[in-house]
Automatic annotation (TrEMBL):
Pfam families: ABATE, zf-CGNR. It comes from Actinacidiphila acididurans. PANTHER family: BLL6575 PROTEIN. InterPro entries: ABATE, ABATE_dom_sf, Znf_CGNR. This is ABATE domain-containing protein. Residues 149-190 form the Zinc finger CGNR domain. Gene3D superfamilies: Jann2411-like domain (1.10.3300.10).
C-alpha cells in the first residue's frame, strides 16, 4: 500500500488534489466552523492558495463571490460523497452535476502547451481565475485517473475530504482513527441487535 501511495501521489496530483481538498475542507466539518462564510474568508482562501493571478491581496471579493464559492463547494462535496458511496451524496449528485455544467462556462480554461506537456489554466485572473483553478485541478486529476479517488470521509462525525490512496480505490475513511471508530460503532450495533433478538 505504501508503494501504491507513492506512485499515486506524484507532485502534480498532490497539487491538484490538495487544492480541491483544501477547498471542500473549508466547510463545517466535525464540529469546526465554516471557513467560507463571507468575502474576507474567500479572500483569505485565495491568498493562501496563491490563486487570483497574484492579485490576491488586491482582488475585489464580494459577498456574491462568497455565495458562489459555497455553492461550488457544495457541488464538489456532493460528488466526493458519491465517490465514497454516501447515500446523501448520490441523492444530491444530479443537481450538483447540473449546477457544475451550468456554471463551468463562467470559468473558462485555456491550454498551456510546452515540450513537457499540456495543462489547462484559468483564462481569467482574480476571483474568477481562482474558481477556474478548481476546474483545472479537476480536469488534471481526471486525466491522471485520480478523480474518483477524491472522497469525503464516511464517518458522519468527520466528513473530511481526502485522497484515497488505497491500491484498489476502496477507501471510505480519511484516517485509521475514523475507520476504527466506525468499525467499533458497527460492532456495538451488531451486539446490541443480537442482544435484542436473543431476548
Ligand atoms: Zn474521517
Amino acid at each position: 500500500m505504501q508503494q501504491a501511495a507513492a506512485e499515486m501521489c506524484t507532485p502534480a496530483v498532490c497539487d491538484s488534489s490538495d487544492l480541491l481538498l483544501g477547498f471542500v475542507n473549508t466547510g463545517p466539518l466535525g464540529g469546526s466552523p465554516d471557513r467560507l462564510t463571507g468575502p474576507e474568508d474567500l479572500a483569505a482562501w485565495l491568498a493562501r492558495t496563491g490563486l487570483a493571478g497574484g492579485t490576491a491581496t488586491g482582488a475585489v471579493v464580494t459577498g456574491a463571490d462568497a455565495v458562489a464559492a459555497r455553492e461550488l463547494r457544495d457541488a464538489f462535496v456532493a460528488i466526493f460523497r458519491a465517490h465514497s458511496g454516501c447515500e446523501d451524496g448520490e441523492a444530491a449528485l444530479p443537481a450538483a452535476e447540473d449546477y457544475l455544467e451550468r456554471i463551468a462556462p463562467r470559468y473558462p480554461l485555456t491550454p498551456r502547451l510546452s515540450a513537457d506537456g499540456v495543462r489547462l489554466v484559468p483564462a481569467q485572473d482574480g476571483v474568477l481565475g481562482g474558481f477556474g483553478a478548481l476546474f483545472a485541478a479537476a480536469a488534471d486529476l481526471a486525466a491522471r485517473g485520480g478523480w474518483a479517488r477524491l472522497k469525503m470521509c464516511k464517518d458522519p462525525s468527520c466528513h473530511t475530504g481526502f485522497f484515497d490512496k488505497t491500491r484498489n480505490s476502496s477507501g471510505l475513511y480519511c484516517s485509521t482513527a475514523c475507520s476504527t471508530r466506525m468499525a467499533a460503532r458497527a460492532y456495538r450495533s451488531r451486539t446490541k441487535n443480537a442482544a435484542v433478538e436473543g431476548r
